Each structure stands twice: as C-alpha cells, then as structure tokens.
Amino acid sequence: MSGLDKRVYSYEEALDGLTDNMTVLAGGFGICGIPENLIAEIRRRGVKGLTVVSNNCGIDGFGLGVLLEDRQIRKMIASYVGENALFEQQLLSGELEVELTPQGTLAEKMRAGGAGIPAFFTATGYGTPIAEGKEVREFDGRKYILEPSITGDFAIVKGWKADHYGNVIYRHTAQNFNPLAATAGRITVVEVEEIVEPGELDPAHIHTPGIYVDRIIQGSFEKRIEKRTVRS
C-alpha cells in the first residue's frame, strides 16, 4: 500500500494496529453484508475487551457471534439481540455489557460521528428507559432527548466493488449499516468482492468515497442465509 493506493493483501495487514479494549464499528444487518473475513481475523488475533458497535451480533457460530464464543467482546452497542442464543445468555447473566439503542438512533449516532457532530436531539426514546439520565429539550411542543454520537478505533465494512483509491459501492440491501460505519472509524477497513482499476467505477454510483477508507482488501465470502423460506 502506497500513496493513494489503499490495497492490502492480507487480513493480518488489514487489521494491523487492532489491540485489546478498542472500539470496533461493524457494518451489516443480521448476517447480510457483514465483513465476515475481517471478523474472522479479529477472532484469530485473539484481542479481548472489545466494545463492538453493530446493528446486532450475528448468529450463533457465524459473524460477530464467533467473537462472543471466544469472550472477546466486553460491551455490545446494538439495536436488537436477534436470534443469537449466546448473546441473550451473556446479556442475562451479566457477563456481557449491552447498550440497546433504537435502530434509527444507532444509525444516526454513527452518521453523526462520521460527520463530526458530537450529539443530536431525537424524539425517539423519550419517556422510556432509553432517556434516563439524558438531557431533554422541547422543540415546537415536542420533547427530545440528547444522544451522543459514536466513533470507533476501527470500522470494519463489507462492500461489493472498490477501486485502488478505496471508493466503494455496496450491493442492494447489503448496503445497510456499512456506509455509516465506514465514516466513523479512525481506521476504516473495507473488504470487497472485487477491486477494479481506477476510473472503472461510475462516480455517480459510489456510496463511500475513498477519503473515508484507509485500507481495502479483496476477499471471498460465504454469504450465509439466516432464514431460508420455501413454498410448497
């Protein structure tokens, strides 16, 4: 990797500098559009005490769920538990610190963090336990609570295509939380299915500009399906 070329060629290099007790922002929704190989590298490195910010924590045995198995996550900031039995178990036992956040608020926390906005007011959560201890203000007769934004030491992101400069395109619903996470990491690492030559991506179709991306790596993906339904 040199100059504007942000390509790296090993997952070890992609997550160089990741250490214990850091905050990691992870894109994905359920197990759709998750940076599965970067998660596997975090597991391989064995770092502990992580605070992970993601919409949820994968499923048992896949995605972020593998980091729960190895007790690498100290705190999870997410919008729901999902169908991860281990997540539920560690939450109820008090082994895992969990900060449940409304989904739209979580998205805006990352977007605001990436935009350099330290906090914002939202009506979501007012009058519920979510609002406890938070500043309340009234605008046009409606009550709002002050929510701090979120940034992280690392952001791990899954894209579809990228060029050497780190300009990224996501595919369909796999976009989800990925572009939000990409803006809010001190070091943002994106793994993609294909890296193309500069100039091959239509500038009008780029979702995450390369200015936000520090490292880009091409990988292969399992793309597991969480729920498969068939019609008889």
Automatic annotation (TrEMBL):
Keywords: Transferase. GO terms for biological process: beta-ketoadipate pathway. Its EC number is 2.8.3.6. The keyword Transferase applies. One of its GO terms (molecular function) is 3-oxoadipate CoA-transferase activity. The keyword Transferase applies. Pathway: Aromatic compound metabolism; beta-ketoadipate pathway; acetyl-CoA and succinyl-CoA from 3-oxoadipate: step 1/2. Gene3D superfamilies: Glutaconate Coenzyme A-transferase (3.40.1080.10). Pfam families: CoA_trans (PF01144). It catalyses: 3-oxoadipate + succinyl-CoA = 3-oxoadipyl-CoA + succinate. PANTHER family: ACETATE COA-TRANSFERASE SUBUNIT ALPHA, KETOACID-COENZYME A TRANSFERASE. Belongs to the 3-oxoacid CoA-transferase subunit A family. This is 3-oxoadipate CoA-transferase. It comes from Metapseudomonas lalkuanensis.
